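Q: Structure tokens for this one, please.
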Amino acid sequence: MNRDADRRPLRADAARNVDKIITAAHQCFRDHGPDVPLQTIAATAGVGPATLFRNFADKEELVLAALNRQLRLRVGPVIGQALATPDAADGLFLVIDALMEVASEDANLVTAVAGRRGSLTGITGGMVESVAVLLGRGQRQGTLRSDISMTDMIRLLAMLIGVVDTIMPGSDAWRRPVALFEDAIRTERPRRPLPPQAPLYNATIEDPLG
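A: Here is the predicted structure, written as tokens:
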């Protein structure tokens, strides 16, 4: 169920409570990790548990609301800029860079929603639509490979987001895999060195090649 769509307009005080809860959730996930208790989030927001549960049925719903806000604030403005960029491939990577910045900086939110990727459909729909527009435009311009489908793109973006599990949270180590991705989908490989390599972070395997 999409509770955001089902919500009735809130009174001013109730809207402030929702805003405080989402802000507190964002802070708590950053400070305490993906397993932070809801009671801690309620206390940080300065509301009681009953108020939290009146607005959010469970932890998943709260995580998605916090992640939705970050995407709206950080990626939303970039989408307009990307769609206005003459080179659609350049625009596409503006969106991807903004998405990866959010994924890295809010790695705990991404981890908390892992395994529930289907739940992300509603909050990433606008972004996916913009990626589809930019992909089609870039293919018509001849700058993006013509044999790539949106199914490919969604899978590749999911793979890129998974990179955050192997990098230091908040770092820009995601730039190297994004550059490799760019090399793979452009019709002409960009003439630039790859961004520097970063060691695997929090990984259960070691890189045998260093």
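A few notes: The chain is about 65% helix and 0% strand. Residues 68-185 form a domain with the Tetracycline Repressor; domain 2 fold (CATH 1.10.357).
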